[in-house]
Amino acid sequence: MALSEEEQRLLEQLEASLAADDPKLAQTLGSSSTPRQIHGRRATLAGVLFVVGLVLLVVGMQTSWAVSVIGFIAMLVATVIALGSWRKATDSDARGKRTPPPNSEPFMGKMEDRWRRRQEGGF
Fold it and tell me: Of 3, 5, 79, 81, whose Cβ has the fewest other Cβ atoms within 10 Å?
């Protein structure tokens, strides 16, 4: 839920007074990274790890099967990191944007209405 302008102003005043009273605590509690930046970093990490795993997989095919297995595991871990980051990013973006569908009547209610219309002769 978004804050009103007055609540936002009060929050900024509280942050400023906290920073003035105890700068070390404010720095410890403050976050310089937004969630979008954090998910972007994780996605970048996953991409780099996937490429490294792919290279290890191909090189391992030429040298030793153990290197290929390590490459495959690295690719699997990168995929799990990417999917987890993507899921968290889409969940946090969708929280404020959810709206009920225009036709929010339950399925059974629709079916009962159709049945009633058929019984009354109006297809």
Answer: 5
d(CA 72, CA 99): 41
Count of beta carbons in the 10 Å neighbourhood of residue 65: 9
Q: Read off the DSSP letter of residue 34.
A: -
Residue 97 Cα distances to 4, 37, 64, 92, 100, angstroms: 17, 20, 50, 10, 10
Cβ–Cβ under 8 Å, residues 82 and 72:
no
CA nearest neighbour of 39 among 79, 74, 83, 9: 83
Task: List per-residue pLDDT tens for the chain, 123 residues long.
Answer: 577 888 888 888 888 887 788 777 767 666 555 666 677 788 888 999 999 999 999 999 999 999 999 999 999 999 998 888 877 766 655 555 555 555 666 878 888 888 888 888 766
